[in-house]
Amino acid sequence: MNERFLSRACLAISIVGLLLIVPFGRGFLEERSVGEMLAGEGEKGIVFGRVEFVIRNDSSALFVISDGNKGTVYHPKPLEIERNSFVTVYGESQKYEGKLEIYAYRVVVE
Asked: What distance in Å separates the CA atoms of residue 66 and residue 48, rounded to the nearest whole number?
C-alpha cells in the first residue's frame, strides 16, 4: 500500500468517526435532574443545582446538591465551593457504602 492511499483511508475513517460522535455521543451530555441521576447505578449526565451544604473539601470534595431533589456529589479534587453556590455537575451515579451518589468528572461553579 502506498502512503497516499493510507492517508485517504485515515481521513475517511476520521470523518466517519466525527459524524458518529454527534448522534451517539449526546447521551452522556443529557441534562438530568438529581432524581433521575440517582434512579439507578451507572446513570450519566449533567445536573445543575444549588449546593445545600459542603460535607468535606480537603483532598477531595463531598457536598449535597439540590434541584428540588437532594443528592450527594463526590469530586476527587478539592473545589472552591460554598453553601448556596450554583454548580453544574458532569458525572455518573455510583454506589458508595450502599448508597447512590454522583461521582463528578467535572464541576463548574456558576
From this structure: 8
Helices (H), 1-110: 3-24, 34-37
SS3 33: coil
Structure confidence at residue 23 (pLDDT): 57
- Give the burial class of 69: count Cβ atoms within 10 A of its Cβ; 0-12 exposed, 13-18 middle, 19 or more buried: middle
Predicted local confidence at residue 69, as pLDDT: 94
With the C-alpha atoms ordered 65, 71, 75, 78, is the resulting torsion angle positive or negative? positive
Task: Return d(Cα 49, Cα 86) in angstroms, integer.
Answer: 6
Which residues does residue 50 pair with via DSSP β-bridges, in sequence order?
66, 86
Provide the 3-class DSSP secondary structure of residue 109. Answer: strand
Cβ(46)–Cβ(32) under 8 Å? yes
